[in-house]
Amino acid sequence: MLGTDQLFSLLYKLSGVSKARKINEVMKMGGIKVEHTFELNGDHVDWLKEMTEKYALEDEGKALRIVLDYVKEEADQTTVFEEIRCNHCS
Known about the structure:
mainly alpha
């Protein structure tokens, strides 16, 4: 199963574009977006910003939508939601 960094790298390879071009110019998905507010930990926001810059995405919302689409379509739901990860526990 691919991790999100591997997914982003694969998208670049498959698109055949130089890093100078934004990947979203090649892969316009469209759809109606609904604005919503979520609470995220600071490291989550930092990671989304890092992926946005690394892959020349339009904004952090696009990075999050890519991750959500991947988890929704490709990831094993049991592994995602039933495996306990306590990255922010005290």
